[in-house]
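Q: I'm writing up a methods section and want to include an example of the input and output format. Could you take the sequence below and give the corresponding predicted structure tokens, formatted cleanly so I can copy it straight into the document?
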Amino acid sequence: MSHKRLNRHQRPICLRIIVRGILILDTPTCLGSGDAESPTDLALLRDSISDRALLTGASIAGALRNYLREYEHGYGSGEQNSDCATTLFGGTRRDPDGEQSPLIIHDAISSKLPAVEIRDGVKINGKTGTADEGAKYDLELLEAGTQFPLYFELLVAKETDKDELKKALAIALRGLEKGEISLGMKKRRGFGRCHVENWQVREFDLRQSKDRRDWLKFNHWTRELANKKPTKKNSPQSIVAALGASNLKQQIDQRSRLVIQAKFKLASPLLIRSSQNLTKRAAKEQNSKLSVAEVVHLRSQRNGKPQPIVSGTSLAGILWHRAERILNTLGKDLKIIDDLFGKVDEEKKVAQASRLVIEESEIENTEDLVQNRIAIDRFTGGAYHGALFSEQPIFGMETAEKGKKSKKGNKKSQPSPKPKHLELKLELRQPKEHEIGLLLLLLKDLWTGDLPVGGTSSIGRGRLQGVEATITWQQRGRGDAGTRRKEITAKNSLTQSAQTWVISQNNGKLEFAGEDKQKLEDFVSSFADK
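A: Here is the clean output for your methods example:
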């Protein structure tokens, strides 16, 4: 410890800002406890007294600090002295004279006893296409819709720049508000998506006697919001406005990323196996039908109902193996796969996170049908005894929209011009042109149905048909992709922002809008020449 640190004065606190909000999970979230004696491989972290789900303040602080660093310096960059991250969260480990964080973040306990989902995972062998032995695992997940009351307290010292602290806090909490920060494990495979609502901000000026008394009487130990609910008149919805940081100088987003949002129809039945079939009790609680099939499609709770989904882990697996197949066909180095999807070196005990973020996708407008199958004896041509089994894949239904009134005054339902059953979202961080080219080839295979999703693809299941794809390339230092995204009007005119391409299918023909489509061909050529 340096001489300067030993002899420095304590900070005189003149202002305390308390921020509260409700964090709502948008997708299942794994907040692991590391309990080796749990019946599942990855158990949830729970409060020892109330048995509710526990979201530690350290986890929240780590997610916010990482977001601030990436927002200010870009992905993969380190922190610097006096930047937003160190200003709000204190010095780094490399700095022995680093200051203590002025932001206090309390542990968050779920408002109710958590509803838990069990997910299975397995490692697929790229050569055989089957599961590796001993590579199956299961984990506990908090259901989407679980709520956590958040509590932050910002301490402003006498000689501290209050506006800089407010700006840093506003940027970090705005990331939570907009759903740009994920929590827990497997964040880059769709888990842990969340957003925050009902912000409440209270500021105490400790130099004023009234505010000092109010702060001493304030119920700091409660995690719930105040009894007086915020309204549009007395409480702004945005955290930036609530903190009074709307007039501050905007920090330019330095993150470089490529986002692909693609809409698809189900061209054939889809089946992603789930071992968690509904029991009679669960079916009654969820107002669902009890399936008689031995194998059912994967579902996840959305708004209190089980919704069929395409998991991010399943989609990542098929993209991984198709990319490997493309590279082997062209005789290229497989290092690009490790750069995109991450890797784990068992010998050196070194891991690299995936730069490709794959979200979970809900499947809409579907119907469940049970299909019976049986194994056939290849020698006799007859059925095997006791080899009858049933499966319940999902089938895509044509959507309908309200049409014009007929002469009799009755409304006619017409098929939607661009019906879709699911929307896939991929985000590549720090993209290179040849990597974008590989992603476009993978998108093409999904679009044409050449790359099936899920299991039992050998009997024709899992084929998709492309409807519309939006590709947005947000380059470093060009502003916030969410607030400055290009908008395509009826005349296909573009507002000035990140580069955007829109690909749509119309009567069997591809239509392009946005930037020059030659740029997309250049990406693929860059991959082929790599």
